[in-house]
Fold this sequence. Notes:
53% helix, single chain, 19% strand, alpha+beta
Amino acid sequence: MGSFRFWFxxxxxxxxxxxxxxxxxxxxxxxxxxxLLLAHNHPDDRAAVADALAAAVRDHGxxxxxxxxxxxxGVHHQVMVVGDGMFDATGTVVGTQGxxxxxxxxxxTYGREAIDDVLPDLVTSRADIEQAKGILTLAYGLSPDxxxxxxxxxxxxxxxKLRTLARRLVAAARALHGGPPQQRLQMDHILLSLxxxxxxxDDQT
Length: 205
């Protein structure tokens, strides 16, 4: 497993030592770029990875993928990328960060079908956590990072897994059938007048 950061404004990458080694390079041997990353993708996966990256930049979302990497020695690796938003001090999304996970050994041991069975659960868990973060952001005026830190704190304090806690929060919030009437009125106004709002300013880092 190796960690990465990717900034949207200048398409700048930061790779941990493990990711450099995954591609067959020594850390810092060259400047990590999107072009370099795509060049090491299996030709059949390259377009899908490029599309996923383009969507992350366009929508300011997280970069996630499951694809094949070919290192400098020609060795094929089955890789899963798990990403999340990266925020500045104001809570503005400035990029995506996460992990490259080399699944090659696991697939060799357990088979591709077993890995594919696990992936939907990972995606669902992440969706629950993102929804829970959104609920806390709206309710308490937190930044996304603060909302996640709050969830993590409650997870540690209660010894309940983070994804389980997030799922419970989402279910409990849905059971409320919406917020207080005044809050709903405010949200009604925002929803019906969104087309008149100015776009949020771009990140200033």
